[in-house]
Amino acid sequence: MTEIQITRTTKPQTPPPDETLSFGNVFSDHMFMLNYDEGKGWHSPRIVPYQNFSLDPATCVLHYGQAIFDGLKAYRGSDGRIRIFRANENAKRLNRSARQLCIPEIDTALIEESIRALVEVDQHWVPKAPGTSLYIRPTIIATERFLGVHPSKSYIYYVIVGPVGAYYKEGMNPVKIMASDKYVRAVKGGLGAAKAAANYAASLYGAEEAKKAGYTQVLWLDGVEHKYLDEVGTMNIMVRIGDEIVTPPLNGAILAGITRDSVLTLLRDWGLKVSERPISIDEVIAAAKSGNLEMWGTGTAAVISPVGELGYKGERYVINGGKTGELTRKLYDTLIGIQYGTGPDPHGWTRLLGNRVGG
Ligand SMILES: *Cc1c(COP(=O)(O)O)cnc(C)c1O
Prior knowledge:
globular; alpha+beta
């Protein structure tokens, strides 16, 4: 593999105290960069001091949104060692997103190595307090200077990392979500299955309306009939109805969450009945009324987010008494145990820093 050139900053910052951390506003001293130019391919992998880009105002990503990203975390265990969770899956997903937006793919081993190498250089930025982590954001933007709609001939792949606080500082807190029968995030045949910047622009208006109505997130329904569950904000959605656990299938409109896959794997390990099938909002509301329902979101930021209330067409439905369900809690505890190295990792999902990719 091509050597990654490392240029260290001459002005290292002091990471902020763990107890002040929130999400997405603090970044480490360095970043990883890789360029693509037509005829040359991806080239010049390097770690450089964290810095601004200089972009021509006509740079195509600023106009036509040819941008994708991914998101994962590194965790410092109680043993002090750093674990990166399932980065190989994020690398594959970044390439799937790339394909959908006509962005040239990157060797997955190089993506994994870019993440590992950057976390290694900035390892003192991985916070120590329980529940904290280092968020990792690989991104690709189209950088050709032109106005006109066609795939760019040049790109930058970069990775930035930053320490983030514990998601549940005051214990697991069930969220209120609102199913939208008006707005859609994505449709089959569109970009829903890609972690494309454009999807988040499309979600903002509906999310603001939900916030005005007192909910934290939108439960997106399918874009055709507004009837079947798709996903929530930046999380996949799951329910337990009686003894069946149901999550929407990867139908092209929703993102293939790595937490989703991890949870489904654990549930199957435990011998539970898991169905990836379309599930209608009416079925969920009927289950909420019968009282035999747990609902939770899955995603890297929160890992597991219990849902305590569902809004739909002006009605509010309380789920599981507004409390975190037993299965929801068990999933959270198990995944956290794997990520922080306090529990067994039977599927080998974490990679300890120091173990190079492929060796
Ligand atoms: C990132 C994301 C998820 C969750 O994916 P994870 O790999 O579990 O973090 C789910 N839905 C959307 C729309 C997302 O952007």
